[in-house]
Each structure stands twice: as structure tokens, then as C-alpha cells.
Amino acid sequence: MNIVVFGAGGRAGRQVVAEARRRGHRVTAVVRDPERHSDLADARLVAGDVTDASGVARVAAGHDAALSAAVDLSVPPYDFFTASARALAEGLARAEVRRLVVVGIASVLPGTSGVPLMDEPGFPGEYRPFSQGHAAGLDELRACDLDWAYVAPAGDFDHDGARTGRYRIADHGDPASRITYADFALALLDEIEAPRHHQTVVAVREQSAAMPS
Predict the structure, then answer these.
(1) Contacts with 134 (C-beta within 8 Å, 6 or more apart), sequence order
(2) Vertex 6: Cα angle to 79 and 15 (nearest 5)
(3) Distance between CA 102 and CA 141 in Å, rounded?
(4) For the purposes of burial, counting CB atoms within 10 Å of the CB of 195, is it exposed (0-12), middle (13-18) or buried (19 or more)?
(5) Which end of the chain has less neighbouring CB within 10 Å, N or C?
(6) Phi/psi of residue 152, each to 5°?
(7) pLDDT tens-digit profile of 164-213?
């Protein structure tokens, strides 16, 4: 497949590029400043702005699917995630790219109580603006016609863990869950290669060797 990855220079984006290349796909890696990411040599590296619909359409043309792991911490979260969701929806539609997978965060997922984790008692207040920005971007996706999937870790990332080659789909968020970026990338690429979830939110968590698939 031809896959375009927005935000390819981040921790999740890099693992997506690596996993896609491991599977033999052709990858266009979109970053703000290609000179800072010359190590992404196994992909076609291009400059792009995920909040610009015309730019999205231009770099996405000719691709089979898109993935966005983009974030810009210099911009208020609400502004960035709503603008990027709108630009992706419009730009990918123009480019006739129907499938979009977006990297999300756990705090928008419902916990065991059914309430989003960010609304449960004890959720750190300093993380609320970022979570609310993600939630607003998700609302924008829900209003578009693309075949999208918003894929989030059930809890957080295991930043130093090694690739196990396993994961499982969870039915709710779990703050105690930890999954490596490499294993999370497996779920993202599976949703691109053989989509199972359509216009919905997907929680992904680690799978121990003893757990069934």
C-alpha cells in the first residue's frame, strides 16, 4: 500500500513508519521540518502542515490510506486538534483517500464507570486542556464522511519497553495499562491494512503471553 503518515517525526509516528516499512508498504512521512528528521531515510520525507487542507490534499494524493500522529505543543490543544481534524477531513476527501487512522489518547475513553477517564474523580487538572482538545478533534471527525478510526492506548505508553509483537483491543480505558509504541503501531497498521473499526474509537492495550488473542 501507499500510506501517508502525518506527524511521522514523533514517537508514535516513527514506530508507524518503521512498522509499515517492515510490512513492505511505501510510506510518505510528513513532518514540519524535514531537515530535523533526515534519519527517516526509509520513507519519502516531505514537509507538510496537517492543519492546512490544501497541503493535506497535495501530499496525500495517490495514497491508499492516511495516518495522523501529529501534535503541535506550541498551539493551544483545542485549536490544533480541531484544525487538524478539519483539514484532514477536507484534504483527504479532495485527494480521494478514504481511510484515516488517528492516534488518540486514553483520557477520552470511557473507564469502567462508563465516564471518560478525564471526567473521573482524581484526573489531573493540568492534563484536562490537552484531553479536551483531543475530544474536540474527535467531535470533528464524527462530523465527517471519511472512513476513520480513532485509536488510543487504553492507558499510557511504556516508553522504554521492547516490541512484543502482541496487543489486544480493550472495551474501556484503564489508567494502569501500558503498551509499547512498537506494539501500538501494530494495531494502527492492522487498522490500515484490514480495517475492522469504522467511524469509531478503539482502545488498545498490552497483551501478556498468557492472554489469548
Answers:
(1) 77, 81, 104, 105, 107, 108
(2) 120
(3) 10
(4) middle
(5) C
(6) -130, 145
(7) 999 999 999 999 999 999 999 999 999 999 999 999 999 999 987 544 44
